[in-house]
Design brief:
GO terms for molecular function: transferase activity. Pfam families: YkuD. Pathway: Cell wall biogenesis; peptidoglycan biosynthesis. Keywords: Cell shape, Cell wall biogenesis/degradation, Peptidoglycan synthesis. This is L,D-TPase catalytic domain-containing protein. By secondary structure, the chain is mainly β. The protein has a single domain, classed as L,D-transpeptidase catalytic domain-like (Beta Barrel), CATH 2.40.440.10. Strands 1, 2, 3, 4, 5, 6, 10, 11, 12 and 13 form a ten-stranded mixed beta sheet that branches. Strands 8-7-9 form a three-stranded antiparallel beta sheet, with no helix packed on it. The two termini are 18 Å apart.
């Protein structure tokens, strides 16, 4: 097991010899126990890397060692605390609120799903905490990297690795 270190105060992600700038949530970082849906906080803690979601035509799976799959047009992620599938992948359209995983920007071309609030999910304690591509602005609580940095990091990650946000 290897650890991807995120220094939230310095907005830096470090893994082995890699040291790169990252973007965090618009609400800064907060202890995971205080994380709430919609607060924009990046949760402090250690989170397993669950797998990778790739947008067809926008990302290449060559060299990826984590479990991965292509996203489909109807893929979403529930962010509605009233949804029985809260903080889980879902199929769109849906009667509950959910993020679309096929966004108009490039942020979700590559998504590394972090195991925050997923074993089991507690409604309202935060959903869809990902490592994804930078949008040039703070995230809604995720960690984001520039595409070139993500492409340097992604092939180095292996099953069992974790992200430690401090």
């Amino acid at each position: 097991m290897s650890v991807v270190h995120v220094d939230s105060a310095a907005a830096r992600l470090r893994f082995g010899a890699l040291d790169m700038a990252c973007t965090l949530g618009r609400g800064g970082s907060c202890p995971a126990a205080e994380k709430r849906e919609g607060d924009g906080c990046t949760p402090i803690g250690t989170w397993p890397l669950r797998g990778v979601l790739l947008r067809p035509g926008k990302a290449d799976p060559d060299g990826i060692r984590l479990p991965w799959r292509w996203t489909r047009a109807q893929d979403g992620w529930s962010d509605d605390p009233a949804d029985p599938a809260y903080n889980r992948p879902v199929r769109l359209p849906r009667s509950f609120s959910a993020e679309t995983l096929r966004r108009q920007d490039d942020a979700y071309d590559i998504i590394v799903v972090l195991g925050h609030n997923d074993a089991p999910p507690v409604p309202g304690n935060g959903s869809a905490i990902f490592l994804h591509l930078s949008e040039g602005r703070p995230t809604a609580g995720c960690i984001a990297l520039e595409r070139a940095d993500m492409l340097r990091l992604l092939p180095l990650l292996t099953p069992g690795d974790v992200m430690e946000i401090a």
